[in-house]
Structure formats: C-alpha cells, structure tokens
Amino acid sequence: MEHHSMSDKDFHARYGVTPREVEDALDENRRRVARRLSEWGYAWAVDEIMCDVAVELLKGGLRRWASYEERKPLGAFVNTLIGNRLGEWMRTERPKYRSGMTHAPLRRRKRKDTTPQREALDATEARRRIRNENNAALADRLCEEADVFGDPDSTVMSAPAGDKSSYQEWLTGGTQPLELESDKYAADMEGLRQDVTTRCKRMAWEMLIRQCLTATRGSDALRNDIRRFLENHHHGLGPSIDDYPYILAVIDKYRK
C-alpha cells in the first residue's frame, strides 16, 4: 500500500488525513456494505468490494479527494466510491455473470458467518436501491467530478449507479447495456456536446457538466435546460442552445 513508503506525517501533509483516518473511513463504510450485501443475498462479497475500494483510493482516489477545494468528509467520499463499485459489481461481476461460476464462492474463514442470507436481489433492483440511498445521503454533490470524467490513475471503473451511469456513458463513450431510461438520450447528449464544443473551448463542456452535478437552485435550472434540449433533440425538433439561457450562461465565457 502506498502509505507504507512514507511516514504518517508525510502522508498527512500530502492528503490531509492520516493512514488511520483512511482505515476508519473504510471501516465505517464496511458496515454499510455488509448491511447492503446481506440484505441482497451477497454477504460473502464484502471483502471483495472493500478491497476494490481500497485499491481505488490508493491508485488515485485519495489524491483526487485531497485536490478538491471544498471537499466532503473522507467517509462520505468513500461512500461514493462504494456506491459506484456496488453498482458495477452487480452489473458485471456477481456470480450470474462470471464465467463458470453459478454460485457464491466457498468462504475461506473458519469462523461461521451467522449473517442471515436472503434471496439474492435482481441487479436492477439493487441499482435502484443504491441510487435511492445515495440520493438520500449526498446533500452537497450528486457525485464527485472525477466519478463522472474518470480517473486515469485507476483501473476501477466509475460504476453505473443510477443517474451517475448516464453521465459516465455520455461523457466517456461507454457501451453499457440499455437498462436505464436515460440511456435512450445518449445520442442527444452527444449532439449537445458537439454543439457546445463547436462554439466553445473544451473546458466549456466540462464546466457545464460540473455545474450540472452540484446541488444548487441554479444547477436545477441548468439541468432543466439540458433536459428540455435533450427531449427536443430526441423528438427531431432541432433545438439550438441559443434558446437555452442557462446553458449559455455557463458556456459563453469559453467562446472560441
């Protein structure tokens, strides 16, 4: 692990937290993961999920979190990563989708797991619950900026968990299964991106989406503008961003 090569003091100077605080944030969220997976019938996967999130933190997540000027508590950031990883795991890596595996792997620990096992949840229902829990928990930001744009230092995907997957697919050109209502607007979002980047510098598009992901009254108006543009584009009405004042207010300063 990365912090083994530096002292606790150096680690704190770099990230603003100590290694123990990182461990505490993981432990705090581990209970949530265990509760969720136990309810869904996958309690045996807790260690796997937590290991993936720890790797995500060490391969760029902590640096990303430390770089935010107004960052949320580390535990809340870890909760965001966990929601992402749970959504991705339910979509692609639960036993149903693993080649040659049709049941949960054998437990290696000798201690008997007394957690009651329920019938395994359908992946769509699990994602719906993840989305509802995340929406209830996150008051300041729907998700972190890098959860949308991706992190080049990480091999762990930003996961499709509710509305986040729409932004992830639209902005990175992903090819997720068409399971979400918003997926049908992917081509329309690409049309908006092309319109914005034709008129403005690339930063305009990034700022547009970044502001879309903040929870303010102005962001609500911006999201409504984008939603109307997408719907009109989807129905072949040929919308122009000149008719959407909240979009223009964001991108005008980045005109070419």
Textual characterization of the structure:
This protein is mostly helical and 256 residues long. The protein has helices at 8-15, 19-40, 46-67, 74-93, 123-137, 145-149, 163-172, 186-199, 202-212, 217-234, 245-251. The protein has two domains: 2-166, no CATH class; 180-256, no CATH class. The chain is built from eleven helices and no strands. Helix 7 crosses helix 8 (186-199). The longest helix has 22 residues, at 19-40. It is flat. Residues 97-122 are annotated as: Disordered.
Secondary structure blueprint with pairings:
Layout: H1 8-15, H2 19-40, H3 46-67, H4 74-93, H5 123-137, H6 145-149, H7 163-172, H8 186-199, H9 202-212, H10 217-234, H11 245-251
What is the H/E string? HHHHHHHHHHH
Helical stretch count?
11
Structural class: mainly alpha
As for the number of domains, it is 2
Shape: flat
For the secondary structure, the number of strands is 0
Low-confidence stretches: 97-118, 136-165, 174-181
- Helical content stands at 55-70%
Mean pLDDT: 68
Which sheet architecture does the biggest sheet show? Answer: none
| Proportion of residues in β-strands | under 5%
- First-last Cα distance: 44 Å
Short key terms for the protein model shown above:
256 residues, single chain, 11 helices, mainly alpha, 2 domains
Write a compact overview of the structure shown:
With 256 residues, the chain is an all-alpha fold. The chain is 59% helix and 0% strand.
